C-alpha cells in the first residue's frame, strides 16, 4: 500500500512536499500570531480591583507619572516593616499603571528584589499586592522593564508547581495573578529576543517549566469537581496559555511533555467549562493546536484515546472553535496516509458537509484545507465525499472570490479516477492551497 502511494522523486513527490512546507509556514505564522491574541483581557486584575474599590464599571484611568523621589519614597515604604507597608504597596500598584513610573521603578536598585521578597512571603495580602505590581510591570512595552522582570520567572514557576488545588481556596487570587504575569511575559514583544532565549531555551526549560506547568494542569483537571467554584477558570486559563505560548516557540520542547494524560486533562477541562466559560474552549484548542502542529505523538494519542468524536462535537461551538478544531484536524491529516485513513474511518466527513454550508469564509477555507489533505493522502475519502454529495457543496463556492480557486481545485481532485489525485497533484491544486 505504501509502495503504491509513493513515487520516485518526480513532480508529484516535490508537489506534496511543497504543500507540506507551505502549510508549515502558515502554521508557524498562526502560532506566532497566537502569542499576541488576548482571549481574556490583559487588564483583568486591574479592572477587577478598580471595580472593587468603587471605580466606574472597572474603567481604566491611567494615573499621572510620579517623580523619581515619589517612586523612591514608595519603594522605601514597602521595604520598611511598618503598618503602612500594604498601603504603600497598593499605591505603588496603581502608580505602575503609568509607563514612565514603571521605567523609574525598575531603575531603582533592589526594586524587583523587594517585590519578589514580598511575593515569596507568608503574608497572603502582601503576596497578592506584590503579584498585582508584577502584573502591571508585565504589561509594559518597554524592553528594559521586561528585562528587569526576568528574575521573577523562576519564582513564578516554583510557586505554580508547588501547590495543589486545595491551596487555591485561600490563595486563588494570588495564583491567578502570577499565572497572568507569567503568560504576559511569554507573550511580550521582547519574548523572542529578550525573555525566551534567556529563560525558555536556557533557564525556563532547565528549571522544568513545561513539566511543572503540565503537572499543575493534570492536578487541576483531576481535582476539578463537576460543580467547579466560580473563579477557578481564571486559574486554569493562564496555565493553559503559558503552556501554549512556550510550545509556540518551536524549540522542540513538546518532546519534554509527551504524556497522553495531558490530552485527557484538556478534554476534562473542556467538559467542565464548556457551557459556562466558552473562552476556556478556545484556550484548550490553541494548546491542542500547538501540541499537534509538529509532533506526531499527540496526533497518534488523540486518535488512539478515541478523543476525536469529542473534538468533532466542538465544531459548532463558535466561529473560533470551528477554525481551531479544523486546524487540529489539518495537523493530524498533514502527518500522512495512515493518519488520514483513521480520520476517514471516523465520522468526520458527514460533519464536514454542514461546515461547508456555513457563511463564514474562514471556517469554510479551513475546511477546504482539511479536505485537500484528506484527498491527497487518502483518495478513498474523496470517493466517499462524492457519494455523500459533497461535490455539490463545493460547487456552491465556485462564485465566492476568496474560496473559488480552492473549491475548483478540489472539484478537479474528486473528478479524477480513484487514487489519481494522491499521485498527481496538478499545478492548479498546488497554487490554490499555497
Walkthrough of the structure:
With 434 residues, the protein is mainly α. The protein is 70% helix and 0% strand. It has helices spanning 2-5, 11-34, 44-52, 68-79, 85-95, 99-107, 111-119, 124-138, 143-148, 152-161, 168-187, 191-206, 209-223, 233-247, 260-273, 279-292, 296-304, 308-312, 319-333, 337-345, 348-356, 361-377, 379-387, 390-395, 404-414, 420-423, 427-432. Helix 7 (111-119) crosses helix 8 (124-138) and helix 8 runs parallel beside helix 11. The longest helix has 24 residues, at 11-34. The model is unreliable at 1-14, 35-59, 163-169, 190-197 and 417-428 (pLDDT under 50).
Average pLDDT taken over every residue: 76
**Radius of gyration using CA atoms only:** 25 Å
Biggest sheet character:
none
Q: What is the N-to-C order of secondary-structure elements (H for helix, E for strand)? A: HHHHHHHHHHHHHHHHHHHHHHHHHHH
Q: Please count the beta strands (DSSP E, at least 2 residues each).
A: 0
Instruction: Supply the number of helical segments.
Output: 27
Could you name the ranges where pLDDT drops below 50 across 5 or more consecutive residues?
1-14, 35-59, 163-169, 190-197, 417-428
Strand content: under 5%
Straight-line N-to-C gap = 28 Å
Q: SS-based structural class?
A: mainly alpha
Helix share, percent: 55-70%
